[in-house]
Amino acid sequence: MIRPSNAYTLAPRLMNLSVWYAVLLGLVEGLTEYLPVSSTGHLLLVQAWLGLGGEEHFSFTVAIQLGAILAVLVHYRSFLTKRSKIVCSSILRHYRTRAAA
Length: 101
Known about the structure:
With 101 residues, the protein is mostly helical. It is 76% helix and 0% strand.
């Protein structure tokens, strides 16, 4: 776990992650994100296979997972917006009919 005392020293250590490792891990995450399997599990397996471990690599995993989640939300934003409006209007309609009765 990152403690506040060493949070400021984490960024320079992230630079120790090779660009090729970052590209490989990004590809693993991107290819397995839409499959019905755990993309995080595959990411951790590849990290273990490459011998990557420790706090700085865990932070990279968290960052890449947040990026994947954000990409999915942006990709499905119109669908999620429509569904959210339907759910909210349904809830409001339910409470309005109960209050009128």
